[in-house]
Amino acid sequence: MCFYFKASKKVLDMLERKYEGIEDVIRNIRSEEFNGFQHPETPVTTGAEPERVQLMQWGLIPGWAKDTSIQNSTLNAKIETLAEKPSFKACTGNRCLIYADGFYEWQWLDPKGKNKQKYLIRMEDGQPFCFAGLWNRWSDPSTGLSRNTYTILTTEANELLSRIHNSKLRMPIVIDRACEPDWLHHGTVRMMNDLLVGESK
Fold first, then answer.
1. β-strand partners of 41
2. Dihedral angle at the C-alpha atoms of 8, 201, 121, 196, nearest 10 degrees?
3. Burial, 102: exposed, middle or buried (Cβ in 10 Å; 0-12, 13-18, 19+)?
4. What is the predicted pLDDT for the residue at 113?
5. Is the separation of the CB atoms in 78 and 23 below 8 Å?
6. Which run of H or E residues covers position 106?
7. Residue 178, Cα to own-chain centre: how many angstroms?
8. How many domains, in total, are found in the chain?
C-alpha cells in the first residue's frame, strides 16, 4: 500500500523545468511529505490535460458519494480489481501521474505489528518518479462546490517490498519514465518497481 510519500525540492525543480507557468501550483504546496489520511493536495498530471500540472486532493471521491467520508478507503486502489469496485469502476479511464521521489513503509518486526521499522523507498538513482493513479472530479451535493481527487494504484509487492511491507504484500505502481505518456493515453502499464531501493529510517 502507499499512505505516506514525499515530493522534495528535487521534484519541484523538475516540474518547473518541465512545465511552464506552474509557480502558483508550487507556491500552494503545503509540505514536502504527505500523509494520505490528511488528504493533502499534491502535484498531478492527468490524461485529460497532459501539458498541465495541478494540485489534486489525495483520496478519490466517486461521483455517487454524498460526502468526503469515503476518502480514507480510497487512498489506494488495487489495479487487479478496478473494474469490480464501485469506487473506481467509473473512473478507470481517468488516468493520472502523481509526482514523488520517495514513499514510506513500515516493516512489521513481530506478528501483530506492535514493533515496526520505518523505510524510505526511492529510486536507486535518487531521481523523481511518478505513481500511476486514477482521478475524479466530485461535486459536493451540499454546497455544489467541486474538487479533483485521486487514488494511487497498487500491485503485488516485489521481492524488496515483500520483505519490507510484510503485512499486506502490496506496493504502489511506479511508472516507467519512458512510458508515462503511454499510461496517460490508455496504453498498458509498464512499471520500474524493480529499480526501487529501501533505506531504514
1. 57
2. 120
3. buried
4. 87
5. no
6. strand 102-108
7. 18
8. 1
**Ramachandran sector of residue 21 (left: φ over 0; alpha: ψ -120 to 50; beta: rest):** left
Mean pLDDT by 10 residues, the chain (201 residues): 94 91 89 96 96 96 96 97 96 97 95 92 97 97 95 97 94 96 94 96 90
Give the residue numbers spanning the domain of 123: 4-200
State pLDDT tens for residues 93-107.
Answer: 999 999 999 999 999
Q: Which of 99, 73, 89 is nearest to 14 (CA)?
A: 99
* Whole-structure pTM value: 0.96
Q: What is the largest CA-CA distance in the chain?
A: 50
Torsion of the alpha carbons at 174, 197, 105 and 162, rounded to the nearest 10: 90
Sheet with 33-35: list strands edge to edge.
33-35, 4-6, 102-108, 116-123, 196-200
Question: Model confidence over 49-97: pLDDT tens digits?
Answer: 999 999 999 999 999 999 999 999 999 999 999 999 999 999 999 999 9
- Domain containing 43 — which CATH number? 3.90.1680.10
